[in-house]
Write a structure and sequence with these properties.
Elements (H helix, E strand, L loop, with lengths): L1 E3 L6 H5 L12 E4 L3 H13 L4 E4 L15 E4 L6 E4 L4 E5 L4 H8 L4 E2 L10 H6 L7 H4 L6 E7 L5 E5 L4 H6 L9 E8 L1 E2 L3 E10 L3 H14 L4 E9 L14 E9 L3 H12 L5 E2 L2 E4 H4 L10 E4 L2 E3 L4 H11 L8 E6 L21 E9 L2 H18 L17 H23 L17
Parallel strand pairs: 2-4, 3-4
Antiparallel strand pairs: 1-2, 5-6, 6-10, 7-11, 8-9, 8-10, 12-14, 12-15, 12-16, 13-14, 13-19, 17-20, 18-20, 19-20
Length: 444
């Protein structure tokens, strides 16, 4: 195991997260290569009375992958992946990113719902639920879990599955890192790729009101195999973007069809008939599509999210109005189509509430400066206040910053939260793992 301290030459690189807004200085970072080293790091934290954080991909916008003056368990060295093409399963080390995972499984034409950004860590993403482009076909990432290996706060190694520690297994379907340090996760995979019909389309921002309404109808009528989102953004200075659009508000559409190429082309046609200025939707590698909207690192980030049973004209007008006030060229306003397997039978086997929602709105406030980041945060908060009358009250915790205990309760509902609290009390009664969207342990 590698111990990295403030006087280590690679300390600043090791403590750096995706979100530049987070600038914390742990007392020690333990780079762990196996479960035994994780247990050793936990003993060290206990013996030295240090708070514990767990870091994999480091994409937590709230900075829950680190702390000040505590110990960070960094599982990034756990990069193993084993794919069984006959059983269509994959066992992934907790330090793997989705880009690495996808490249490995796509060698066999297999996939599972993964992060929309390829640099997102597999473990934190999945334990928080795991919302991605394939969710309407295959459910969330957590819905495809077969087992999880954990190291608990006491240093014990446990496996959670339907047959072994089933209540813990249920809690790991969206309960986050509250119950231990995941060291490996085994998934059921699905036939997909290596080529799919997927990509992005771009439309002028002046068309946003009418385009949003047309998109809503097409997306509602699309089959479950279509994964799609509408993104309001500033057109970037890329070669494929017409010069007259660069730097102005644009409306993007992301599209993927989880099936054969001919059907993918057919179901893309209603979107293409809207007349995009840029059309990049075509047969392409699934793993390549998974990288298409990777956000650049080193930006100051603040995000949030809300669920919607429907997108009324008034709600769409608010989305467009908010997009017309984007705080800087990196911020985006996204609304993704849910439905399909998101609200299917698997939903009853997770603690996550409001899975029957049809849409999720997801404002991204991004800036190159800390001052701009604060302006972006204010923009996100204002949007959430404005859109509140059109939401279900539910929330996806992986999509938000540190918004308080009420929002955590809203993600699970009172009954599921109580059940999660009982599991927490069994496996982490002293709340060692509290640097997260924290579930308080039930009193013993």
């Amino acid at each position: 195991m590698e111990w990295i301290r403030p006087d280590s030459p690679d300390y600043d690189d090791a403590r750096k997260l995706f979100n530049a807004m987070i600038d914390r200085r742990p007392a020690v970072i333990a780079k762990c290569s196996d479960p035994g080293e994780v247990a050793e790091a936990l003993r060290y934290a206990h013996n030295h009375n240090l708070d514990v954080a767990v870091r994999s991909g480091g994409h937590s916008v709230a900075g829950m992958s680190t702390n000040d003056d505590g110990l960070v368990i960094d599982v990034r060295p756990m990069k193993s992946i084993s794919v069984d093409p006959d059983a269509k399963t994959a066992t992934a080390g907790a330090g793997l990113t989705w880009g690495e995972f996808d490249r490995a499984t796509q060698q066999y034409g297999l996939a599972v719902t993964g992060g929309r950004a390829s640099t997102t860590g597999v473990s934190g993403f999945t334990l928080g639920g795991g919302s991605g482009w394939l969710e309407r076909s295959y459910g969330f990432a957590c819905d495809n879990l077969l087992s999880v290996d954990l190291v608990t706060a006491s240093g014990d190694r446990v496996t959670a599955s339907r047959d072994e520690n089933p209540e813990l297994f249920w809690a790991l379907h969206g309960g986050g890192g509250n119950f231990g340090v995941a060291t490996s996760l085994t998934f059921q995979l699905h036939d997909l790729g290596p080529s799919v019909v997927a990509g992005l389309m771009l439309f002028p921002g002046d068309d946003a009101p009418d385009l949003s309404r047309a998109y809503r109808q097409i997306a509602l009528e699309a089959p479950d195999a279509v994964g799609t989102a509408l993104v309001y953004l500033t057109a970037p200075p890329e070669e494929f973007v017409p010069e007259e659009m660069v730097g102005k508000l644009a409306v993007g559409m992301a599209y993927i069809y989880a099936g054969d190429l001919e059907a993918g082309e057919e179901h893309a046609k209603p979107f293409k008939d809207l007349g995009p200025s840029v059309d990049l939707v075509s047969p392409m590698g699934y793993a390549d599509f998974q990288c298409m909207i990777d956000d650049p690192p080193d930006l100051y980030n603040y995000w949030s999210a809300d669920y919607h049973d429907e997108l009324s004209d008034a709600a769409l007008d608010l989305l467009v109005d908010s997009a017309q006030r984007l705080p800087g060229p990196h911020s985006q306003q996204l609304v993704a189509r849910w439905g399909g397997a998101v609200g299917g039978p698997a939903a009853a086997n997770t603690p996550l509430q409001h899975r029957g929602a049809s849409w999720v709105s997801h404002p991204f406030g991004l800036s190159e400066t800390r001052e701009g980041g604060q302006e972006a945060k204010a923009w996100v908060k204002q949007f959430r206040q404005d859109i509140a009358p059109y939401t279900t009250g539910g929330v996806w915790l992986n999509f938000i910053g540190d918004e308080g205990q009420d929002r955590i309760m809203a993600a699970y509902g009172e009954q599921n939260y109580r059940r999660l609290s009982l599991v927490k009390g069994e496996f982490d009664p002293d709340n060692v793992f509290r640097g997260n969207q924290n579930i308080l342990p039930a009193e013993r």
